[in-house]
Amino acid sequence: MSEYGEFGLIKHLTEKIELKNSSSQKGVGDDSAVLDYKDKKVLVTTDLLLEGVHFDLTYVPLKHLGYKSAIVNFSDIYAMNGQPKQITVSLGISKRFSVEMLEELYSGIELACQIYGVDIVGGDTTSSLTGLTISITCLGEGEKDKIVFRNGAKENDLICVTGDLGSAYMGLQLLEREKSVFQGQQENIQPDFTGKEYILQRQLKPEAQKNLIETLKEKNILPTAMMDISDGLSSELMHICTQSNVGCRIYEDKIPINLQAVEMAEELSMNIVTSALNGGEDYELLFTVPMDKYEQIIPLENVAIIGHITKPELGLNLVGRQGEEISLKAQGWNSLNEEK
Amino acid sequence: MSEYGEFGLIKHLTEKIELKNSSSQKGVGDDSAVLDYKDKKVLVTTDLLLEGVHFDLTYVPLKHLGYKSAIVNFSDIYAMNGQPKQITVSLGISKRFSVEMLEELYSGIELACQIYGVDIVGGDTTSSLTGLTISITCLGEGEKDKIVFRNGAKENDLICVTGDLGSAYMGLQLLEREKSVFQGQQENIQPDFTGKEYILQRQLKPEAQKNLIETLKEKNILPTAMMDISDGLSSELMHICTQSNVGCRIYEDKIPINLQAVEMAEELSMNIVTSALNGGEDYELLFTVPMDKYEQIIPLENVAIIGHITKPELGLNLVGRQGEEISLKAQGWNSLNEEK
To answer: B35 in contact with A at a CB cutoff of 8 Å?
Structure first.
């Protein structure tokens, strides 16, 4: 690291960046970036990721970590029905990181930015006495009257989710198991992940739901409420229902679950539905639409209707496969809870 | 901490926040904040502060730390000739922090926001395995054609600074000395800081140069280049000269230094000019203006002309009190350098 100072390092990491968006007027290299959003609304979100809390470098490749760090921020902007446009990246780095390792991390961030059309417009690096700290802020644009909040769900609205739930959590369980197996043995045997690629990818290299936002725009569907599923379906439903002052009923057999996640849960003797409800890190979108959009939603690829919004006094309920009603509790992935 | 989860804690810390700026449309509580900058440019800057690297809680009160964490971001926006309008605050918190301690920290952030007219529009809290991590992103507005970068300094421009330099660094030296004295003794004797209040305040509770930006606007003076002095005058001059492709000559006897800083340097047998050049954390503004603005700059309170811009081939020079020329080297406060 000694060949670069703080300025040299951030310059080295960012010097090849070319700005793509017309709203990005000036990027890295001054006291602040300069953006021009003209008549669009500016969306801003931020995420702080700490080693040992949010990621474990014993099994997370740095490039994947960089990619995911960017994606989780893009996901928040899509969840407002917006388009991510710029990020700033601050890194706290301890001595054990080489320039090559930071290049790996940055290459993942850059790849995500390239795929999603986002500019890196600022950032800094600083030394850390402990592990790696990644702080990313994402700015995006939203159109007037098209921004979707969490508080607009109405009685009888359909509850929809993209993709499938619980896979990222099952991927994490697999990685944690292999880590403990690996630590318990002498020889350097590579674990066999055949047939588990999908759940691993969902954990290590998630994607944000750009496609849904584009589809909704094409089809002229405006959700009444939307958020991304980062802490688990139950937790996010709780947010939408609380902020919208409504209740909800979702159906166990409608929750989209991938076969690899089911198999992994069986292998680990875990309940896959519980994992889908509370696992987190799916980065799928949860949204509600008026019931009269049913015919438009049904043909959409990658979107499932899992239930509907009810009166607030009915609470949040899951209807099981035998028709039994179970009250939903948010037990989402919540790092502060771990301290209890 | 167990009484609040992650959501509860951030809600508790932010629930009293009222948005002041018309550009702040939606603050904390959704996937992202929503801002409306209309025909203004959006400025964005971010700072990551790590315990043990950027601050030492053995002598920094949490409220002061919160205040300073906000100020250093505002300072970057003023350095673009902009007005800070919104911040997002992410905190990484270890187990030893109580809710009351976080309230203290937050109260300092809120106080700074109140004084400078800034809204807190987002943020989160997460657990940390180690110390306190503070990540703040600040957004501000700039007027078209009035944003000042680092790259516009021209030959013969006057070099100006606000306030005085080196005081914050001397305040830090004092605190470090008292810390080591305190750690070496058995009894709990409070240090006597009489006559050293100013340098302590400059270190613990710095201010950003809002007044200068307002004065420049009133007087219709647009700097050719500007940046804030966070890493030390030498380092910042290097940035401006490199980016503007110019040289500079500054005069030792023109560098504004406070008497308390001079006295502290003598007490510690340190060179106050070196400290003023390389100390950092002043959060004053360094700017250049065309020579014909001389008559307008001279009457300004709190602004000193310290030299002028030269041809690039002349390099960066300090003219000493005996007329000797000394080549300037940036040795600014640079946390990565400490690792060398």
So the answer is: yes
